[in-house]
Amino acid sequence: MTIDWSRQRILVLAPHPDDETLGCGGLMSKAAEAGGEIYVQFLTVGDTADFSPAGLSTADERYAEIEKVAESYGWRQWHIAFPGDDYHLKLDALPRFDLIGAIERHSPLAINTIEPTVVIAPHRTSYNQDHQVAAEAALAALRPSNTALKHHPSLVLSYEEAADQWRADAVPPPNLLVELQPHHVDHKIHAMSLYGTQVHDHPHTRSELTLRSLAALRGMQGGTSFAEGFHCLRWLG
């Protein structure tokens, strides 16, 4: 089974800036190289207390990082649905109706607006509350319906992040592997480095070694050098 990425209009849903690169940075590199269109809908960003030397990453810093990453990948457009400290790391307090509405129809990058052929969202198994509600809202926004009345992307995937494995219950293995070439992995690592407030030295879930190791593991499972793993929720061939 192969996908012609040059023909795809891809919408990536990212709870926060860097989730899109962690989850499907290699796929975005591969698709952009082929000529596919990539749109990234961030859900929220704000000032964040962290383990950086300053102890805080500001929203302005994060916006500047997004601009660099967007240029690196060649995204067609990106947007933040719920910016500000009232929402950042608090998406679980937002009415689910509002979150679903933004993904489905009320954002400049809503599914009904740009009519993507591929939608890629986080997986419900993440320990992070923003990721969990984003995944559930995406499922609701992409619910089965009459294709004559509502746009249905042909391919719906959930991406994984290394930290998703931190669960008390079993995490299902990916059921779709996207083969990557070494330069796609290098591009993903470079893009992650542009998120200077978020990247960390090893051992960390966002370290270069972690990202390369996960790509090598998924590649091995598919009989190739590198890959990214996804959970396929819909495939209309």
Can you put this structure into words, describing what you see?
There is one protein chain. This protein has 237 residues and is an alpha/beta fold. The protein has one domain: Rossmann fold (3-Layer(aba) Sandwich), CATH 3.40.50.10320. 37% of the residues lie in helices and 19% in strands. It has seven helices and nine strands. The strands form two sheets. The protein has a seven-stranded mixed sheet, with helices on both faces. α5 (129-141) links the parallel β6 and β7. α1 crosses α6 (182-194), α2 (59-73) runs antiparallel to α6 and α3 (96-106) packs across α5 (129-141). The N and C termini lie close together (10 Å). This is LmbE family N-acetylglucosaminyl deacetylase. Keywords: Zinc.
Number of DSSP E strands = 9
CATH class type: Alpha Beta
Fraction of helical residues: 25-40%
Through-space gap between termini: 10 Å
Keywords, separated by commas or semicolons:
single chain, about 240 residues, alpha/beta, Rossmann fold, seven-stranded mixed sheet, two-stranded antiparallel ribbon, 9 strands, about 35% helix, globular, LmbE family N-acetylglucosaminyl deacetylase, GlcNAc_PI_deacetylase-related, LmbE-like_dom_sf, zinc
